[in-house]
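Provenance and format

Records in this collection were gathered into a single text stream. Each protein contributes a sequence line and a token line. The two records reproduced below are adjacent in the stream.
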Amino acid sequence: MARAARAPVRRAARAADVVTYSLRVATAKAEETRERILDAALSLFRQRGFDETTMRDIAAEAGVATGAAYYYFRSKEELVMAFYARTAEEAREVIPPLVTRSHDLGKRVRAIIDTQLKQFEEHRRLMVALVRIGIDPKHPLSPFGEETGDMRNASIDFFRAAIVDSKPPVPKDLAADLPRLLWLYQMGIILFWMFDESRGQRRTRALLDGTIDLVVRLIQISSLPMMGRLRKRLLAILRAVEE
């Protein structure tokens, strides 16, 4: 009697297992399709350019129906946002171990920026096409916009980690603002790199070599007692501008 009573329970458990397995397979297949569409889009953006590529082109390259491409991504802009998210996720895995290799602030900052440039290296054509978007902070894809805020803050956090126990040490009153300033410095480097047509972007490397050393020296100078008043005045101006 008890055995008969347990039979429906076992059948229900098996049915639940089947449903769970089916959902897991369907989710994995959907994620694979989504990644394939994104890879196809990035490949076409590199080959043809962002403006010249259509969603129909992307669907054909990915081997899916156009409607399926629109199911996963409503526009090319959503594909770019997915590219941003993928890059940010990769950076979260790669950059922290690089930062902990040295206490030298210059080496830490260089490691962060070098990693970001390497991530974007094969996507320079896409990045150049998006410059006009980046200028408008109200555009969803702008690195200065609200929609990209989480990724921007994650990038700023890399620099926040870089200044912890660094050499030279960072003045306490500068520590809160410096990560954002370093991120803005990185954005300037990336912008220069986008339009650097020298072989292997040699000019960008030269710019990095010289300016990182300069940035570190300025931080050292700012920590001198005689620079305290000037440092506070500069920080007050920066905070007023942000507000």
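Adjacent record:
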Amino acid sequence: MITRLLPKVLVVDDDPPIRAFFREVLNPISAQVAEADDAPCALEAIESGDFDVIISDIWMPGATGLELLTMAQQTRWDVGFILVTGEIQIETVIAALRMQAFDFLLKPLTPEEVTRSVTHTFERLLSLRQARAYQGSLETSIQRRTRELEAALSELESNYQMTLEALVAALDAREHETFSHSLRVRAYTRYLARRAGYPPALMPSLEQAALLHDIGKIAVSDAILLKPAKLTAEEWVDMRKHPIAGDEILRRVPFLRPASAIVRHHHERFDGTGYPDALKDAQIPLGARLFAVADTLDAMTSDRLYRQAPGWEAARNEIRLYSGKQFDPQIVELFLKVPPTAWMQVRSEAGSTSVLAK
């Protein structure tokens, strides 16, 4: 009989009820759950214990959770680190991921989120330990260096992707009603692009563009972005600047630069009435034409605070109606050949919390 490995967990939080919540949730899935109410106590516990996973609040008296994570990185603790906060900040998320935090949880927490996070973190930690053990068993230094280089490149790519997704999660959370929108649009765009024969070598840039299409909204004020009423003409002028702002942001990052043109033109229309450059037909990058259909599909199959989603059939009718106006007719033809059940499956696999079946 194979004995299942269970993690030893250290919870670091200055709030006793929060520690009690973690202890109750984690006891069934852990070999041990220890507690510390601040960073110094956590350091003492780590010196005397042998933990697999550390869950730490970011904002605590004295040293912060980020500072504790810095110590973990500098001293190469063999642990998976999960940070918890009640207020998400883009700079904090990016800093945590660059310091190789395994996960980032936002309060209020649910037992399911905590269980999933700890389980995933422990599995990833075990995989890293196994990888290190394997690398250590290689016979020659050349083989070891080759493996280390491959692992470093893979980890770098993973960290880039995690940073992008954390940034997009923060952006989607800013507009509370569009949570997970960017992840779903990326999935729809990827699916449609494959059916359209989009070049595989260009697919990563297309996915990055779909994921980051609204990054330019960082430059839009909350007063406009979250306004519950209709925007004024002046406010629309500011709102329509976000594709240009997104283009400028991505151009400053070398590995994201190929995605910048798609981000700039994701609001162009096939008939030339879009913005910011009034491009038409094939002047619009193919990736942007694919994205336009995917974006509309998600918008019409997702609930908003001010309305329920019109549904899948309404989305198909809308996209068919605006073929040749807003959308590329050839892409619309490809889209209409895909049954709604297939799009629902794509949505589900993208991690949506609400799959509509209207």
